[in-house]
Each structure stands twice: as C-alpha cells, then as structure tokens.
Design a protein that fits this description.
By secondary structure, the protein is mostly helical. It is built from 8 helices and 4 strands. This is DUF4276 family protein.
C-alpha cells in the first residue's frame, strides 16, 4: 500500500483545515503540523475547536495525542482550547458589544435577544450551558449557530421585513473582532481558561 504524499513544504495549507472539528481536526493536525514545523520555528501550538457538547477532557486528549505523535513538538508550548458549545456563545456573552451595536442587527437586537432567551432557552449569563450531548450525532442536540439563524429568520418574518440572515462563516468572525474578551470570560468558564492562558503567556 502506497503512503499518501504529504503537502509540499512552502505551500499554504490553512484553508483545507477550515470547518474541521473533533477527530477530523485532529487528523488535519497530524497531517499539516509536521510540514509547518519543517519550515518555521514554532513557539506555541494553539488548537481551538467548538466543543459541541462533547466532554472537554476527552476532547483535549484527542488533540494532545495528535500533537504528541509529531516529532519536534516535545519542547513546544501548547494550548488546547474550546468554544462551548460553539464560538457563538462568546458573541452572546458580550451581546452589548456585538449584536447590539452591529449595523446589521442593532435595529432589532432587543427582539432577537428576547426570542433567544424566552423561546430558545439560551442563558445570556451562561451561554456555554446551551443544549446537551447527543450520542447519536456526537454533537449537541441543538446547534447554537442554527438557533441563531432561525431566530433571525423568525424576527424577519414577524416584522415582515427583509432582515439580514445570520451566517456563522460571515458574521461570527466579524462580530468576534469587536467582542470584549474581558466580558466574555466573566460569563463563559471554559473560555476563561483560554483567556487567562493567553494573558499569562503572551502579554
């Protein structure tokens, strides 16, 4: 059986890993990290994944095992961090600096917040607690990003207006750019671990 050739050194491979999560992301790490280490010196291996209601300790072990299996990582610092259940929980935790001020959502953000809180049972003081693990899918029973998409759509239909859709790929990264980590860490304990690691090791 022939071994599949790895990516060529010097070529950017980052885009191929986008959207990967869990074991698939661990496989991407095993595939691409050795090449990255050949080309550049590395001070830190940072893994950030949506937890999707999976067990945090077991999920971290999968990534650590993948990194441990790569020659040259023995003396490199690493940080395995999670957004629980998805990165959108960070946006909800800092609502006043994200949806409440963004030009696409601010006009109806109060109604959207009420819908998410009252009908979708999202706790704005503890958004990481949303949903529960579904062993059949190895993920949350309800995806937080899907709930946001449906809630924005429902607001649009109720108001009989053409409101912007919510896109995890488009809007989440943009809103994260204006979110305040200091506020998020007060409401998201799992994020707080990541936040304090970065403060202690980078600042």
């Amino acid at each position: 059986m022939k071994q599949k050739p790895g990516p060529k050194p010097g070529k950017t491979q980052k885009a191929k890993a986008l959207g990967k999560t869990g074991k698939d992301l661990a496989s991407q790490i095993s595939y691409f990290l050795p090449v990255a280490l050949q080309n550049d010196t590395c001070d830190l291996v940072l893994v950030l994944d949506d937890l999707d209601c999976r067990d945090e300790i077991n999920s971290a072990a999968i990534f650590n095992e993948a990194i441990d299996g790569i020659h040259g990582t023995e003396n490199i610092d690493r940080c395995v961090a999670f957004a629980a259940p998805e990165i959108e929980s960070w946006l909800i935790a800092d609502w006043q600096n994200t949806f409440a001020v963004d030009y696409r959502f601010r006009a109806f953000h109060e109604g959207l917040r009420h819908r998410l809180s009252s009908f979708c049972k999202i706790l704005f003081d503890n958004p990481e607690s949303f949903s529960e693990f579904n062993p059949d899918t190895d993920a949350c029973r309800e995806k937080l990003s899907d709930v946001l998409i449906k809630a924005v759509q429902a607001e649009s239909e109720e108001r009989k207006l053409t409101l912007p859709h919510f896109s995890k790929r488009e809007h989440s990264p943009e809103l994260l750019m204006i979110a305040k980590a200091q506020i998020i860490q007060q409401k998201c304990p799992i994020f707080a671990k990541f936040y304090h690691y970065l403060k202690d090791h980078i600042e």
